[in-house]
Amino acid sequence: MRVAQFTFRAGSEEKGLALLREHAAFVAKSPGCMRAYLATPIHGPSFMVYGEWDNEADIDRFEGTMRMNPEASSTFFGLMPLLQSPAHIARYEVIESD
User: Which of 3, 24, 41, 89 has CA 20 to 30 A from 59's CA?
Assistant: First the structure.
């Protein structure tokens, strides 16, 4: 799975959330993405885009597309000036599930 966490500057949450919705929709449509969610905070300022992927090669391909295709990444990079700090992006492997 791939998790991207975003914390917006005060006053930019509304605009940022609209861009995050677009970004999450783009993630969900990407080849190899089985499921993607946008999560809003219950307590705290950070939002999260969570994606489940078939395999790590699909995540590599997605991230390559984000770096090389300005149309694909425009929403993501449009978020940058609205953030308190750079997005925290991490990959995880499920080691146990029900």
Answer: 41
CA dihedral (79, 84, 85, 90) positive or negative? negative
Tell me how far apart the alpha carbons of residues 91 and 79 are, in angstroms, rounded to a whole number. Answer: 20
**Cα–Cα distance between 46 and 85 in angstroms, integer?**
11
- In order along its 98 residues, the chain shows pLDDT tens digits of 999 999 999 999 999 999 999 999 999 999 999 999 999 888 878 999 999 999 999 999 999 998 888 777 888 889 999 999 999 999 999 888 77
Kindly tell me the burial class for residue 29, based on how many C-beta atoms sit within 10 Å of its own C-beta (0-12, 13-18, 19 or more): exposed
Alpha-carbon span 41 to 24, nearest angstrom: 16
Structure tokens at 83: 């953030």
For residue 43, what are the contacts with CB-CB under 8 A and spacing of at least 6? none
